[in-house]
Amino acid sequence: MEKINIGLVGFGTVGQALYQVINNSRNVHAEIKKVCVRSLEKPRSIEVPQGLLTTNVDEIVDDADINLVVEVIDQADAAFEIVSRAMRAGKNVVSGNKAMIAKHLTELLDIQKETGRALLYDASSCGSIPVIRNLEEYYDNDLLLEVKGILNGSSNYILSRVFDHGEDYADALARAQKLGFAESNPTQDICGFDSLNKLVIITLHAIGVYVAPADVFVYGIEHLTAADIQYAREKGMKIKLVAQVVKFGEETFTMFVMPEFVAPGRYIYSVDDEYNGVVIRGECYDRQFMFGKGAGGFPTASSLLSDIMALRHDYRYEYKKTAFSPRPEYVTDIALKIYARYSTTDLHTLLPWQSIDEEYRSASHRYVVGEILISDLYKARTALAADDVFLCNFPRFFAERDN
Amino acid sequence: MEKINIGLVGFGTVGQALYQVINNSRNVHAEIKKVCVRSLEKPRSIEVPQGLLTTNVDEIVDDADINLVVEVIDQADAAFEIVSRAMRAGKNVVSGNKAMIAKHLTELLDIQKETGRALLYDASSCGSIPVIRNLEEYYDNDLLLEVKGILNGSSNYILSRVFDHGEDYADALARAQKLGFAESNPTQDICGFDSLNKLVIITLHAIGVYVAPADVFVYGIEHLTAADIQYAREKGMKIKLVAQVVKFGEETFTMFVMPEFVAPGRYIYSVDDEYNGVVIRGECYDRQFMFGKGAGGFPTASSLLSDIMALRHDYRYEYKKTAFSPRPEYVTDIALKIYARYSTTDLHTLLPWQSIDEEYRSASHRYVVGEILISDLYKARTALAADDVFLCNFPRFFAERDN
């Protein structure tokens, strides 16, 4: 087995954690030879040997000694360019970049075929939880019916502060930012885009179909108010930001990201703080639940390390389910039962409700509980992004034994 | 890729479930060509084509068309003979037989090396939960510190009836037997031997060391009484049958199976009924929790199917950690804090306690809470098997943030 010489692109929290883990491990048989950073001057908490850092990614891509590139930068497009170049230069790649992967999955499959190189990215979905690898290898048959989970640690931390610790939403967000769970611009996390990127990746490995992020209805927790919190609490439920892909028989499936009312007793009810939890449901095994740290430098580094070790044993994703027949078709004419709270945007008349179960109005706000198609939510997504609106899903698929 | 022709040995609950799953799947590309049973006359709930069943295992082992043997019988020694013969005849093997594998692991490694054939057995540990595969592939580095879990569905079902549903122990056992969770002779399950077999297999894949089942202290729940249940309840805890392997630094590890007091908030507290749950703890990822059905025909069949599909892609266990350096040494001079209840067997004087925290006596029973070495428990195991004795462990490793 060839020794692994790593070129690391990105030296933030995750990159530095990986550097420490590899240097402290006795059985990894890998070495980080070069690290590409944006600035050599930036102060860093760990010391590195002289000459390790560079600002020129060519020093990694063009170095024939480097046989593996690990990419952990923030920018999706820059990352895609580096990853493509590295594979075309004959290197295997490990990436934790969910935005890049979700956006470019189809091209990344092609580049893997074209170059014969492997790209592994288990760290991109749910940090330390081995979701992708298990979907690809262990749930590699057509028994799988549903994958549903809390895929974003930052938004879950905020919701957990609100529902488990009684904090205000604003205080919880501020605390999350202070602890480094949420970015100073936390749009990706709290608007659901980060969960969506992970869901797109998971869906390809779960049922073999790629759906572009732009084609999926996504709704976040940024407009959650005290009224919504009170509504959930009065019903003994928490609100969680949930991503899900659900198969209906062999023919169709749907997927979306939305806040959801979660009752006690369901697996994801107890996924608190910055943790992630994923429920995999299938025909024979019923339900599997995987739970672990979804974010943070060291949990993500441990996942990158697993992928690095797997490449040492020539592991690659086979994308077996993309060859399955029939592959189900993505549909959105599926009715959800939702709670829609508003004040000035009149959701009652704006949305083409299939049916309405409840209506409420007070001096401060109104809400409707009723059935609506996912496709209609998607069409109305601009109006639904208004500041005075909040939507939350009542889970109903497989509700008879919902966990 | 070669088509998989399966010879199935054993046609009980699991074998029949596997037969149905493979026949109903469109993407498995495998066929069960022959099934070896003990009796052709035994009534079965599913219909099979004429000529499928045989009582002569040679018809499988000697059939050159059959390239994969799936072994799901009860007997450890007969299974070992069949599995060895099949591998020597050039066939890959999938087995769910934990007793056989735990007992013969070393020989099975040698036969795999000698024949170049692969033996997969994820179904042997925790039914549908992919524990072995994840330990082997994903946690394939030296970050792993501890694996701890509820590995036996039948005993957990009984304890769950007692602690979650307020039933008597005797009623709970009878109900488990009626539902088919516990055998008519449930010794393997409730005395902890089944958990122990799984722990032995898990330990090899977790830290690369094989310890024979006979060298491990195992204590079951067969002598649990109302007094013990009351003791746990008064402290707000449940009793669970827990198997664990724990590393102490790089040099040593210990392992044992024992009832344990489990406080609310710990992951395994909510593993109820026939479910299994495994906590994997490591240096970077902290804790991962996997939860799913640990027993039953279809959950186990789904696991067998994953292994069958993996063989189609030439997957094999590499037993990577057996090559790690240093491999930790198995030690038992480790102090546990335990509750020891007795009436006529005087455990207070019988056992060489390191220290005693509590003593209690009443007309019906006595108990001691104190520290004792695992090695001393092992030495006293015959006396501790007396009808009037029950032991339960207070978890203490990593207790500061114990989950």
Describe this structure in words.
The first copy, chain A, is of the alpha/beta class and about 400 residues long. The first copy, chain A, has helices spanning about 15-25, 60, 75-90, 100-115, 130-140, 155-165, 170-180, 185-190, 195-205, 225-235, 295-310, 345-350, 375-380, 380-385; strands at about 5-10, 30-35, 55, 70, 90-95, 120, 145-150, 215-220, 240-250, 250-260, 275-280, 285-295, 330, 335-340, 355-360, 365-375, 390-395. In chain A, strands 7, 8, 9, 10, 11, 12 and 13 form a seven-stranded mixed sheet that branches. Chain A has a six-stranded parallel sheet with strand order 3-2-1-4-5-6, with helices on both faces. In chain A, strands 15-16-14-17 form a four-stranded antiparallel sheet. In chain A, strand 9 (about 240-250) and strand 10 (about 250-260) form a beta hairpin. Chain A starts with a strand and ends in a 9-residue tail after the last strand. In chain A, about 55% of the residues are buried. Chains A and B meet through helix 5, strand 12 and helix 11 of A and helix 5, strand 12 and helix 11 of B.
Report the strand count of chain A. 17
What are the low-pLDDT stretches of chain A, counting only 5+ consecutive residues below 50? 399-403
What is the residue-averaged pLDDT of chain A? 91
Instruction: Please identify the structural class of chain A as seen in this structure.
Output: alpha/beta
* Rg estimate of chain A, integer Å: 22 Å
Number of helix segments of chain A? 14
Helix content of chain A: 25-40%
The span between the termini of chain A is 44 Å
